[in-house]
Each structure stands twice: as C-alpha cells, then as structure tokens.
Design goal:
By secondary structure, the chain is an alpha+beta fold. The chain is built from 13 helices and 16 strands.
C-alpha cells in the first residue's frame, strides 16, 4: 500500500531587515487582503450564502463583478486567494455551528427520538439545511427525498424548523478579521532567486526582493506573516510528505496520561517526569503576570513584553513535550499504542482525571502525540476508559489511590497508579473493549 501523505509546515525567515518602503508595500497588500475577506464574510457568511459555498465559483464570479478588486487595485493573485480563504473560513464556521446544534439536539429531553432523527437529517444534508434556513421547499434527489418524507411524516416539521432557525441565530456568528499583517501568495506571485524571494506588489510588473536565511525553493501556495516592528517576515510553506515506516516498530504499548508524569507505559516506563513541574511553573507565571497587569491597568502597562516572554515559555514547554515524545517512540518502538478514551468525550471520570484530560484531550500534548504517530505510521487505539483507574490490573477488583500508589482492596496488590491504569488499558484492548482506531 502507498504511504499516507501528510501535510507538514516548514518556515522560512527574512535574513536582513526589510526597508520601511518595502514593508509599507507589503502591509498594504495585507490590509487589502483583510478587506476582501471581510467583504466575503459580510456578503456570503449568512444563511443566504449557504447555497453558494460549494464549490465556490459562484462567489468568485460575484466578487469579480463587484468591482472591489479594481477599487483596491489588488492583483488577482492576491484577490482570489483572499476570496477562497474567506470561503474556507465560512465553511468551517458553519461546520462548527452545525456540530454544536447536533450536540444540543441530542441533549434536549423535550424532543422525541423521531424529532431528533429528523433534526439530524436536516443538519447533515446540505440542501435540506439551506432550504429550512431560507424558508424554501425542501427538494432533494429522489432517493433522499423519499427518506426525508418518511422522517417528516413522523415529526412536527414546523416546530422543528423554527427550533433550527432559532439555534442558528443564537450560535452562528458572522466572521470578521482585524489582522493586517498576514496574506497568502500563489505560485504566480513569487519567484525564488539570489538567496531570497521576489514578491509581487500592487505596482504592475514590479516585485520586491526579500533575502532569506536559506536557499530552499518551493512551488506551492505560501503564507506570509509580517512583523513591521521588527522589519522582518516569516513564510509558512505547506509540504506534502510521506509517513515513515520503521521495520523495528513492532511492539504493542499501552499508556496512561498523567498530570505530573506525562505518560506511563504498562511496563512501568515513565516519560516526561518533569511535565507537571514545568506546566505548573508556566501556569503560575501567567497567573502572576495577569494579576500584576490587572492591578496596574490604569497606568496602561504594555503587553508586548508579556507576550514575548509567554511565547518563550510556551516554546520551552513544547520543546520538552516533543523531546519526551520522541524518546518514547524511539525507545518503545510501538506499532500500536493503546490509550483510554478520556473524560469529556463520554467515558466519565473524576475531577482529578478530568484535569489530566484537559491537558491531553484538548491540548498540545495530545495533538503532538497523534501527529508524531501519523508521521511514523503508528496506530493509536482508544479503549473504554470508564472506571479504569479504580480497577486492579491483577484481579479486576476495586481499589483506592493515594499519593500515586494504587492499592487493591481484594488481593492487596500495591503498585504505581499510572502503571496499573496502563496495564488495565492493555487488558481492555485484549478483551475487545475498543472504541476507536486512529491510523
């Protein structure tokens, strides 16, 4: 089978300060880029624009006819990228809105199962969703139309349509950007050469030259971020790379996350033992700085130094996380990693476990683990996590945890709390209590 293709972002940096005149020209492009995006947000971000979002050529044609590009004097290589960037953002916003309403629908006890089934159908079928919000007849392909009519016959459609419209008005927010330092550039608008890059500007047949710190050259859409105060820019380059496969990655490893030790395996190996200390130091620093800022707010203290220091601390913490994850993968050589499905996603759990989940399930650490596993063709398998930390891995009885030690009330076994949990993860995987696989 062909290797999985992944998108990886590499970055390039300007090597010398950009002159004030050149930076002004680049900032003008970025400012107009934002104006185009806001125009698209305002005109097509509401319910009236739903029917034009896919594939987007209708919006493109309407933007061409609007005369905005001529008014701004923005080259087409920037104008149409801004249009499709805005369309992508609008699509994502609608996806978030529909996902939220789906979740609320499932939690609403005032709806029967037929009502919920009907609402789920509307939220998942684009044409039906658009028709309801725009108060138009629902007309679908024959096979889907038959399915719709069966569902509609069993539900109070008018009441459910009003509910859906109310929820959209409540949860769907129009997008807007105030960012004037970022823009994308297509391959037609730049050229590499002479240890730098030539970027098109608003003046016809003119480009400005920016020396770079490396000689790498790419042929894809780039994202430019400007730092006018520092007279520099950063280029983000998305690259398609193949996932690596290692012949010696043959082990099956069960792990348990922790607030203090980053992760523990079922064999008792620990990785990231300073994670909790570093995380606490970072959190304490932010709390103290925010308290100081609020105390002196009337004196208008600047936040630029705070932001720079915060980024440095974040980078150190992220560097430590990546270092320990790399060590975990290189030493354990896993083919499959088993992990308990964490609280907040349906498996329950106590307050202490939920704190660990907050760091893992929605945090940088979990995302990096998943990314590195995809890079190295390691499969992640989630198992049922309900009550897993209170179960004895030796006899299956219920025990208690105190100061990092699990003690079984049945067989008297005493072992490291996280090692016990990881061992239970492996047992549940072996018994088929698998929820999700992530290749």
């Amino acid at each position: 089978m062909p290797s999985e293709m992944l998108c990886r972002t590499v970055r390039q940096y300007s090597s010398t300060p950009i002159s004030g005149e050149d930076m002004k020209k680049l900032l003008e492009i970025a400012r107009d880029y934002g104006k185009v995006k806001n125009y698209v947000y305002d005109r097509f971000g509401g319910v009236g624009g739903l029917g034009m979002l896919y594939p987007g050529y209708t919006v493109q044609n309407k933007m061409t006819a609007s005369g905005l590009r001529t008014a701004l004097g923005l080259p087409s290589v920037y104008f149409y990228l801004a249009v499709f960037d805005a369309l992508r953002d609008i699509r994502c916003q609608w996806t978030h809105t529909r996902t939220k309403i789906l979740r609320l629908t499932g939690q609403n006890d005032n709806f029967s199962e037929d009502d919920k089934h009907y609402l789920r159908f509307l939220l998942r079928v684009n044409n039906a969703f658009e028709a309801v919000l725009n108060q138009k007849p629902i007309e679908l392909p024959a096979q889907i139309q038959n399915q719709y009519e069966k569902l509609a016959h069993q539900a109070d459609t008018q009441r459910l349509h009003r509910y859906l419209c109310r929820q959209v008005r409540k949860h769907h927010a129009r997008l807007h950007t105030d960012c004037v330092t970022v823009f994308s550039v297509s391959e037609r608008a730049y050229r590499y050469g002479e240890h730098g890059i030539y970027l098109a500007i608003k003046e016809k047949r003119r480009r400005i030259f920016v020396p770079l710190t490396d000689n790498n050259q790419y042929t894809c859409q780039l994202s430019i971020k400007l730092y006018p105060g520092e007279q520099r820019l950063e280029i983000a380059v998305p690259l398609a790379v193949s996932a690596r496969k290692y012949k010696d990655y043959v082990n099956q490893v069960a792990i348990a996350p922790g607030m203090y030790t980053m992760l523990t395996t079922d064999s008792g190996h620990k990785y990231g033992e300073a994670f909790g200390v570093r995380q606490s130091q970072y959190t304490k620093w932010i709390w103290e700085r925010n308290k100081s800022y609020c105390r002196n707010r009337e004196d208008n203290p600047g936040r630029s130094k705070y932001a720079a220091q915060k980024k440095r601390l974040e980078d150190r913490l992220h560097g430590y996380i990546n270092q320990e994850l790399n060590r975990f993968l290189s030493e354990e050589k896993p083919k499959v990693i088993y992990l308990a499905k964490l609280p907040g996603t349906g498996s329950g759990g106590g307050r202490r476990t939920n704190r660990a989940a907050a760091m893992w399930q929605r945090g940088y650490l979990r995302r990096r683990l998943e990314w590195k596993c995809r890079q190295q063709s390691v499969e992640i398998v989630e198992v049922l996590g309900n009550g897993i930390s209170r179960e004895c891995s030796h006899c299956g009885g219920t025990g208690s945890r105190k100061k990092g030690i699990f003690t079984c009330s049945i067989c008297g076994a005493a072992l490291d709390e996280k090692t016990n949990t990881a061992a239970n993860v492996r047992k549940r995987a072996a018994s088929g209590k698998i929820i999700k696989k992530r290749s």
